[in-house]
TrEMBL record, chains A, B, C, D:
All copies of domain Thioredoxin, residue ranges: 1-159
Name of the molecule in the record: Redoxin domain-containing protein
Superkingdom of the source species: Bacteria
Entries under InterPro entries matching the protein: AhpC/TSA, Thioredoxin-like_sf, Thioredoxin_domain, Thioredoxin_ResA/DsbE_sf
Source organism per UniProt: Pendulispora brunnea
SUPFAM superfamilies registered for this protein in UniProt: Thioredoxin-like
Gene3D superfamilies: Glutaredoxin
Length: 185, 185, 185, 185
């Protein structure tokens, strides 16, 4: 059996969308989705970030936190914090975003990215309530798998005592068919 | 607190994609996703059925069964079993599909559809390991919510002892950026 | 130089969505988009037919006619005219659709499909104002190419004297950015 | 009858993806698609620029030129030329892009954007072979309309003598159906 390792603490130079820096230690007891991205990475912009936004919205009533990490490893001059700030504004990213600290030895890969051995962007890390890395994915998950993985981590938090499966139904708009389906009344 | 009701047994005239009829009773101990559809319902064809297929594929190693139900409530002559059979073949639907039995009193709504008080197609019913209806949705779920709901029901089955969250990562194909993301090595 | 051949006349058993049968001869002087499909062909349903519908709508003020042809070459029992009629109703197909006549020798391929040497469905045939086949495509075009090809045939009709390029602009809804763009006032 | 006005000459500070600055005067005799965008405008990134790239690729053998114009009217510090250069690299934008010159009076709207009275980004301007504005659209066109408009302008150039409608067909991959369609041989 593979024992998940403790997620390394983040090393950042700045935080946006939050009044104070976030630390993993203070997020114990909650599930954390860490989304590492670069603002000029097409796969992040068109798929990764929108997915992180959907997660933040859908699980907003759960003990789950979505945290962005700007892990610039190329075109450093092009993605400075003023550009990132405008990017978050225009793309309506509301979750907190930390700026990964540069390598003190002058390398291209920033410090947190290195500590997690990330292979590129986007990378999505799922961290459980005990602060352990349970899944780290380079590229984009599909929503079905990601939803399932997050619900599993949440059910572990709860000991599966309370169910998040509700009975909500979508009300049909009218008799007949539209692109959503066909109503019988 | 709302107590989920026991899912009514299905009343069918025929089964496709299975050597013998399925009953809810025999599926106890497993999570069931019941997907009610009509082969000429656009929302079913373009969104509902592909989603049910993704669920069947992704959860194929879990105690979870996807069952289709052909609940024709309009254009009965146009959706007879020969047409359904060809439809399942062309759309590569592999999960078992039952044909809902017609109303003996001659009404439009078939029997199982009526027993579940479904409002139209597609309708997705999530049934837990004890045979209770936990969620019934008319229209199309998003994948994130559906994945989360199914994982929750699976974790209840297991008592959340064993985790389905694995550590799989997507391998980067090459250095540089493509539509999936940017690799750093 | 390749001389386009005259489009063979259609041989049909029935017409839907029109009060009287259509013939190529009576459509001379207009551009014709002939869309050959089967109601149980997934590529037709999800991509080909929606594209033909967009063409019918966009070019509704031009001398251009979209004509459907139901060319069943497999599962004949599953796609009889009652099923086709329900299909057209549910998918809101409004353009005229002819039912291709069966091979009198009992072969699988219907007569018009054979006369055009179509390779399968969907097949889109562009016929110019003189009744000549100018393009025949198996599979799905992209919209940019199809729009360009149709406009070219229309400009030949007109002798390119009158321009269909208008000056319409999309009005911005509000200041700021949304998924359509960013407005400056 | 509305007489199209002559497209104002561009006023730029820099050009990328080209060895020398482009002027409208030197592009006479060709159709020009001018795509005005901002690198942090979501609608430009996800829809407008990909469409301009498709046009550049599809019409590469025609007398048609796609020209980008970076018309920054907000977050000026965030979208400087170093950032734009990295953006074009990561998004694989190959067509020439001019940087619109700032307002000498210190206003937010850059000079070319003002000269064309653009309402925001993306804006697509179609300029005919005589240098006249034939269509200016704020927001995103659909491909069918844009393909038709460009083909119309090209046919005017040629006097509609030579046809760009070829007879290309997509070869079926195999017998049976896939997401593109159903083959009969």
């Amino acid at each position: 059996m593979r024992i998940p390792r403790l997620a390394p603490e983040w090393t950042t130079t700045e935080w946006l969308n939050t009044s104070e820096p976030l630390t993993l230690e203070r997020l114990r007891g909650r599930v954390v989705l860490l989304h590492a991205f670069q603002m000029l990475c097409p796969g992040c912009v068109t798929r990764g970030i929108p997915q992180a936004q959907r997660v933040a919205e859908y699980f907003s009533h759960e003990p789950l936190v979505v945290v962005g990490l700007h892990t610039v490893f190329e075109h450093h001059e092009a993605m400075r914090v003023e550009s990132l700030r405008a990017f978050l504004h225009e793309y309506r990213v509301r979750f907190p975003v930390g700026v990964d600290a540069p390598d003190p030895a002058g390398g291209f890969i920033p410090r947190t990215m290195k500590a997690y051995a990330m292979q590129g962007t986007p990378t999505t890390v799922l961290i459980d309530g005990d602060g352990r890395i349970r899944q780290q994915t380079f590229g984009v998950h599909d929503d079905l798998r990601l939803g399932a993985a997050l619900a599993q981590l949440l059910s572990e938090l709860r000991g599966a005592r309370h169910s998040a499966v509700d009975g909500a139904t979508l009300e049909p708009k009218r008799f007949g068919c539209d692109e959503d389906g066909c109503a019988n009344r």
